[in-house]
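Translate sequence into C-alpha coordinates.
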Amino acid sequence: MAGGIRGRLLPEQQRRTLDELTTDLDLREGDARSKQSAFWTMLVLSAVIASAGILTDSTATVIGAMIIAPLSTPIMGIALAIAKRERNGSLRFVAAGVVLVVCVGVLFSLFLPADYDLLSNGQISGRTSPGLLDMIAAMATGLAGAVALARKDVAAVLPGVAIAISLVPPLAVVGVCLGKGDVLLALGAGVLFLSNLLAMVLTGSLVYAVLGYAEEAINRDERSTRRRYTILVVLCVIVLIPLIANSAATYLLLRYTNDAAAAAKAWVSNDPGATVTGVTNHGLSMTIDVQTSGELPPTSMLLSDLQGTVPDFVGITVTSTRGQVVELRSVGFPSRTR
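Result follows.
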Protein backbone atom coordinates (compact mmCIF):
# COMPACT_ATOMS: atom_id res chain seq x y z
CA MET A 1 0.00 0.00 0.00
CA ALA A 2 2.83 2.37 0.88
CA GLY A 3 4.33 1.76 -2.56
CA GLY A 4 1.05 2.71 -4.24
CA ILE A 5 0.77 5.92 -2.25
CA ARG A 6 4.40 6.69 -3.00
CA GLY A 7 3.90 6.20 -6.71
CA ARG A 8 0.90 8.51 -6.80
CA LEU A 9 2.50 11.25 -4.69
CA LEU A 10 5.90 11.05 -6.31
CA PRO A 11 6.38 9.39 -9.72
CA GLU A 12 9.92 8.07 -9.98
CA GLN A 13 10.80 10.29 -12.92
CA GLN A 14 9.89 13.39 -10.88
CA ARG A 15 11.57 12.31 -7.66
CA ARG A 16 14.36 14.45 -6.28
CA THR A 17 17.25 12.60 -4.73
CA LEU A 18 17.87 12.59 -1.01
CA ASP A 19 21.10 14.52 -1.55
CA GLU A 20 19.26 17.24 -3.49
CA LEU A 21 16.60 17.52 -0.79
CA THR A 22 19.20 17.60 1.97
CA THR A 23 21.17 20.32 0.18
CA ASP A 24 18.04 22.48 -0.06
CA LEU A 25 16.77 21.99 3.49
CA ASP A 26 19.94 21.58 5.58
CA LEU A 27 21.57 24.97 6.16
CA ARG A 28 24.83 23.24 7.11
CA GLU A 29 25.15 21.31 3.84
CA GLY A 30 27.07 22.57 0.80
CA ASP A 31 28.01 26.24 0.84
CA ALA A 32 26.79 26.62 4.42
CA ARG A 33 28.16 30.14 4.90
CA SER A 34 26.30 31.54 1.90
CA LYS A 35 23.11 29.67 2.72
CA GLN A 36 23.09 30.86 6.31
CA SER A 37 23.88 34.42 5.27
CA ALA A 38 20.93 34.37 2.86
CA PHE A 39 18.69 32.83 5.53
CA TRP A 40 19.41 35.46 8.18
CA THR A 41 19.24 38.33 5.70
CA MET A 42 15.88 37.21 4.33
CA LEU A 43 14.57 36.49 7.83
CA VAL A 44 15.38 39.99 9.07
CA LEU A 45 13.79 41.54 5.99
CA SER A 46 10.74 39.28 6.33
CA ALA A 47 10.38 40.27 10.00
CA VAL A 48 10.63 43.97 9.14
CA ILE A 49 8.10 43.65 6.31
CA ALA A 50 5.70 41.63 8.46
CA SER A 51 5.96 44.02 11.41
CA ALA A 52 5.42 47.05 9.17
CA GLY A 53 2.46 45.37 7.49
CA ILE A 54 0.93 44.51 10.85
CA LEU A 55 1.30 48.04 12.24
CA THR A 56 -0.24 49.51 9.09
CA ASP A 57 -2.89 46.76 8.95
CA SER A 58 -1.86 46.01 5.37
CA THR A 59 -2.69 42.52 4.14
CA ALA A 60 -0.66 42.97 0.95
CA THR A 61 2.47 43.88 2.91
CA VAL A 62 2.06 40.91 5.26
CA ILE A 63 1.65 38.60 2.27
CA GLY A 64 4.96 39.94 0.99
CA ALA A 65 6.59 38.77 4.21
CA MET A 66 4.94 35.37 3.82
CA ILE A 67 6.29 34.89 0.31
CA ILE A 68 9.86 35.32 1.52
CA ALA A 69 9.11 32.63 4.15
CA PRO A 70 12.73 31.85 5.20
CA LEU A 71 11.64 29.94 8.32
CA SER A 72 9.98 27.25 6.22
CA THR A 73 13.40 25.97 5.11
CA PRO A 74 14.75 24.90 8.53
CA ILE A 75 11.27 23.78 9.62
CA MET A 76 11.08 21.37 6.72
CA GLY A 77 14.71 20.57 7.51
CA ILE A 78 13.53 19.33 10.92
CA ALA A 79 10.97 17.13 9.16
CA LEU A 80 13.64 15.68 6.88
CA ALA A 81 15.98 15.09 9.82
CA ILE A 82 13.28 13.09 11.62
CA ALA A 83 12.64 11.02 8.50
CA LYS A 84 16.38 10.43 8.05
CA ARG A 85 16.83 9.65 11.76
CA GLU A 86 19.58 12.20 12.26
CA ARG A 87 20.28 15.68 13.55
CA ASN A 88 21.03 18.54 11.18
CA GLY A 89 20.88 21.65 13.38
CA SER A 90 17.61 22.89 11.85
CA LEU A 91 15.92 23.14 15.26
CA ARG A 92 18.56 25.61 16.44
CA PHE A 93 18.04 27.77 13.35
CA VAL A 94 14.28 27.79 13.97
CA ALA A 95 14.68 28.66 17.66
CA ALA A 96 17.12 31.49 16.94
CA GLY A 97 14.90 32.73 14.12
CA VAL A 98 11.88 32.83 16.42
CA VAL A 99 13.76 34.99 18.91
CA LEU A 100 14.95 37.33 16.16
CA VAL A 101 11.48 37.90 14.66
CA VAL A 102 9.89 38.46 18.09
CA CYS A 103 12.57 41.03 18.92
CA VAL A 104 11.91 42.88 15.67
CA GLY A 105 8.20 42.94 16.54
CA VAL A 106 8.97 44.35 19.99
CA LEU A 107 11.04 47.13 18.41
CA PHE A 108 8.24 48.01 15.99
CA SER A 109 5.75 48.20 18.87
CA LEU A 110 7.60 51.32 20.02
CA PHE A 111 6.02 53.16 17.07
CA LEU A 112 2.52 52.61 18.47
CA PRO A 113 0.86 55.16 20.79
CA ALA A 114 0.43 54.17 24.43
CA ASP A 115 -3.37 53.89 24.17
CA TYR A 116 -3.37 51.85 20.93
CA ASP A 117 -6.10 49.20 20.82
CA LEU A 118 -4.36 46.07 19.53
CA LEU A 119 -7.61 44.25 18.74
CA SER A 120 -8.73 47.11 16.48
CA ASN A 121 -6.00 45.96 14.07
CA GLY A 122 -7.23 43.13 11.85
CA GLN A 123 -3.72 41.76 11.32
CA ILE A 124 -3.35 41.31 15.08
CA SER A 125 -6.84 40.19 16.05
CA GLY A 126 -6.85 37.60 13.26
CA ARG A 127 -3.71 35.93 14.64
CA THR A 128 -4.33 35.96 18.38
CA SER A 129 -7.31 33.61 18.50
CA PRO A 130 -6.35 30.43 16.58
CA GLY A 131 -8.77 27.54 16.26
CA LEU A 132 -8.85 23.92 15.19
CA LEU A 133 -9.27 24.84 11.52
CA ASP A 134 -5.92 26.66 11.65
CA MET A 135 -4.23 23.40 12.64
CA ILE A 136 -6.03 21.47 9.90
CA ALA A 137 -5.01 24.05 7.30
CA ALA A 138 -1.42 23.95 8.56
CA MET A 139 -1.27 20.16 8.22
CA ALA A 140 -2.60 20.32 4.67
CA THR A 141 -0.11 23.07 3.88
CA GLY A 142 2.75 21.06 5.35
CA LEU A 143 1.70 18.10 3.20
CA ALA A 144 1.63 20.26 0.08
CA GLY A 145 5.00 21.81 0.88
CA ALA A 146 6.71 18.48 1.54
CA VAL A 147 5.40 16.96 -1.69
CA ALA A 148 6.35 20.07 -3.68
CA LEU A 149 9.90 20.00 -2.32
CA ALA A 150 10.25 16.30 -3.14
CA ARG A 151 9.03 16.64 -6.73
CA LYS A 152 10.84 18.29 -9.62
CA ASP A 153 7.70 19.37 -11.45
CA VAL A 154 5.65 21.26 -8.86
CA ALA A 155 8.12 23.74 -7.40
CA ALA A 156 5.91 26.54 -8.73
CA VAL A 157 3.38 25.91 -5.96
CA LEU A 158 5.86 26.77 -3.19
CA PRO A 159 5.00 30.52 -3.14
CA GLY A 160 1.36 29.55 -2.62
CA VAL A 161 2.38 27.20 0.17
CA ALA A 162 4.38 30.01 1.76
CA ILE A 163 1.35 32.31 1.69
CA ALA A 164 -0.95 29.61 3.06
CA ILE A 165 1.19 28.90 6.12
CA SER A 166 1.62 31.69 8.66
CA LEU A 167 5.10 31.64 10.17
CA VAL A 168 6.77 35.05 10.43
CA PRO A 169 3.60 37.21 10.82
CA PRO A 170 2.34 35.54 14.03
CA LEU A 171 5.82 35.84 15.53
CA ALA A 172 5.84 39.53 14.65
CA VAL A 173 2.44 39.81 16.35
CA VAL A 174 3.92 38.11 19.43
CA GLY A 175 6.63 40.77 19.52
CA VAL A 176 4.22 43.68 19.01
CA CYS A 177 1.88 42.40 21.73
CA LEU A 178 4.74 41.80 24.15
CA GLY A 179 6.03 45.28 23.41
CA LYS A 180 2.63 46.68 24.38
CA GLY A 181 2.50 44.49 27.49
CA ASP A 182 -0.38 42.25 26.40
CA VAL A 183 0.88 38.78 27.30
CA LEU A 184 -2.42 36.98 26.59
CA LEU A 185 -2.61 38.22 23.00
CA ALA A 186 1.06 37.35 22.54
CA LEU A 187 0.34 33.85 23.85
CA GLY A 188 -2.49 33.43 21.33
CA ALA A 189 -0.25 34.38 18.41
CA GLY A 190 2.47 32.11 19.80
CA VAL A 191 0.06 29.16 19.87
CA LEU A 192 -0.79 29.85 16.21
CA PHE A 193 2.88 29.74 15.24
CA LEU A 194 3.54 26.64 17.34
CA SER A 195 0.57 24.80 15.84
CA ASN A 196 1.75 25.66 12.33
CA LEU A 197 5.30 24.58 13.18
CA LEU A 198 4.27 21.23 14.64
CA ALA A 199 1.81 20.54 11.82
CA MET A 200 4.49 21.20 9.19
CA VAL A 201 7.08 19.05 10.94
CA LEU A 202 4.70 16.16 11.57
CA THR A 203 3.20 16.03 8.08
CA GLY A 204 6.52 16.76 6.41
CA SER A 205 8.37 13.97 8.22
CA LEU A 206 5.58 11.49 7.49
CA VAL A 207 5.59 12.43 3.80
CA TYR A 208 9.36 12.03 3.53
CA ALA A 209 9.15 8.67 5.29
CA VAL A 210 6.37 7.45 2.97
CA LEU A 211 8.24 8.69 -0.08
CA GLY A 212 11.17 6.43 0.80
CA TYR A 213 13.77 8.96 1.95
CA ALA A 214 13.98 7.25 5.35
CA GLU A 215 15.01 4.01 3.65
CA GLU A 216 17.90 5.76 1.92
CA ALA A 217 19.27 7.27 5.13
CA ILE A 218 22.42 5.74 6.54
CA ASN A 219 21.58 6.17 10.22
CA ARG A 220 18.48 4.09 10.94
CA ASP A 221 17.81 4.07 14.66
CA GLU A 222 14.21 2.83 14.89
CA ARG A 223 13.91 3.56 18.62
CA SER A 224 15.08 7.14 18.13
CA THR A 225 12.58 7.62 15.30
CA ARG A 226 9.67 6.28 17.34
CA ARG A 227 10.65 8.51 20.23
CA ARG A 228 10.72 11.60 17.99
CA TYR A 229 7.34 10.85 16.48
CA THR A 230 5.90 10.20 19.94
CA ILE A 231 7.17 13.57 21.13
CA LEU A 232 5.73 15.26 18.05
CA VAL A 233 2.32 13.66 18.47
CA VAL A 234 2.22 14.53 22.17
CA LEU A 235 3.12 18.15 21.43
CA CYS A 236 0.45 18.31 18.73
CA VAL A 237 -2.14 16.98 21.18
CA ILE A 238 -1.09 19.55 23.79
CA VAL A 239 -1.43 22.36 21.24
CA LEU A 240 -4.76 20.97 20.04
CA ILE A 241 -6.32 21.40 23.49
CA PRO A 242 -6.37 25.25 23.45
CA LEU A 243 -7.22 25.24 19.73
CA ILE A 244 -10.27 23.04 20.29
CA ALA A 245 -11.28 25.04 23.37
CA ASN A 246 -10.98 28.30 21.46
CA SER A 247 -12.95 26.89 18.52
CA ALA A 248 -15.73 25.81 20.88
CA ALA A 249 -15.74 29.20 22.59
CA THR A 250 -15.87 30.96 19.21
CA TYR A 251 -18.80 28.79 18.14
CA LEU A 252 -20.70 29.50 21.36
CA LEU A 253 -20.06 33.25 21.13
CA LEU A 254 -21.28 33.24 17.54
CA ARG A 255 -24.41 31.39 18.57
CA TYR A 256 -25.01 33.77 21.47
CA THR A 257 -24.45 36.73 19.15
CA ASN A 258 -26.97 35.42 16.60
CA ASP A 259 -29.51 34.70 19.35
CA ALA A 260 -29.02 38.17 20.83
CA ALA A 261 -29.42 39.77 17.40
CA ALA A 262 -32.66 37.87 16.78
CA ALA A 263 -34.02 38.85 20.21
CA ALA A 264 -33.03 42.48 19.69
CA LYS A 265 -34.72 42.63 16.28
CA ALA A 266 -37.90 41.22 17.78
CA TRP A 267 -37.60 43.77 20.59
CA VAL A 268 -37.52 46.79 18.22
CA SER A 269 -39.98 45.34 15.69
CA ASN A 270 -42.89 47.34 17.13
CA ASP A 271 -40.95 50.60 16.92
CA PRO A 272 -40.86 51.74 13.26
CA GLY A 273 -38.09 54.23 14.02
CA ALA A 274 -35.69 51.69 15.55
CA THR A 275 -33.31 49.25 13.83
CA VAL A 276 -30.63 46.92 15.19
CA THR A 277 -27.42 47.82 13.36
CA GLY A 278 -25.15 45.22 14.92
CA VAL A 279 -24.18 43.02 17.85
CA THR A 280 -20.51 42.86 18.82
CA ASN A 281 -18.56 40.81 21.35
CA HIS A 282 -15.73 42.10 23.53
CA GLY A 283 -14.54 39.12 25.55
CA LEU A 284 -17.39 38.29 27.91
CA SER A 285 -19.37 41.42 27.15
CA MET A 286 -21.82 42.03 24.33
CA THR A 287 -22.95 45.33 22.83
CA ILE A 288 -26.21 45.73 20.90
CA ASP A 289 -26.21 48.81 18.67
CA VAL A 290 -29.58 50.31 17.83
CA GLN A 291 -30.34 53.09 15.37
CA THR A 292 -33.34 55.05 16.59
CA SER A 293 -34.91 58.43 16.02
CA GLY A 294 -36.08 58.70 19.62
CA GLU A 295 -35.67 57.00 22.97
CA LEU A 296 -34.89 53.29 23.15
CA PRO A 297 -37.89 51.01 23.73
CA PRO A 298 -38.22 49.63 27.30
CA THR A 299 -35.39 47.16 27.83
CA SER A 300 -37.13 44.87 30.32
CA MET A 301 -38.64 42.75 27.53
CA LEU A 302 -35.27 42.43 25.78
CA LEU A 303 -33.57 41.36 29.01
CA SER A 304 -36.30 38.78 29.60
CA ASP A 305 -35.87 37.35 26.08
CA LEU A 306 -32.09 37.15 26.49
CA GLN A 307 -32.34 35.42 29.83
CA GLY A 308 -32.62 31.95 28.37
CA THR A 309 -30.37 32.42 25.35
CA VAL A 310 -27.28 34.29 26.57
CA PRO A 311 -25.56 33.04 29.78
CA ASP A 312 -25.84 35.24 32.86
CA PHE A 313 -22.09 35.78 33.08
CA VAL A 314 -22.05 37.59 29.69
CA GLY A 315 -22.47 41.33 30.13
CA ILE A 316 -24.97 43.04 27.82
CA THR A 317 -25.09 46.73 26.92
CA VAL A 318 -27.47 48.50 24.53
CA THR A 319 -26.34 51.67 22.78
CA SER A 320 -28.31 53.98 20.51
CA THR A 321 -27.25 56.41 17.82
CA ARG A 322 -28.61 59.20 20.02
CA GLY A 323 -25.96 58.46 22.63
CA GLN A 324 -28.16 56.53 25.04
CA VAL A 325 -26.38 53.66 26.83
CA VAL A 326 -28.23 51.04 28.87
CA GLU A 327 -26.31 48.34 30.73
CA LEU A 328 -28.69 45.41 31.00
CA ARG A 329 -26.26 43.38 33.09
CA SER A 330 -22.60 43.39 34.03
CA VAL A 331 -20.03 40.70 33.31
CA GLY A 332 -20.23 37.88 35.83
CA PHE A 333 -23.06 39.40 37.88
CA PRO A 334 -26.73 38.50 38.11
CA SER A 335 -28.89 40.30 35.56
CA ARG A 336 -30.57 43.52 36.50
CA THR A 337 -32.80 45.97 34.68
CA ARG A 338 -32.09 49.64 34.33
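Note: The domain at 252-329 is CATH 3.30.300 (GMP Synthetase; Chain A, domain 3).
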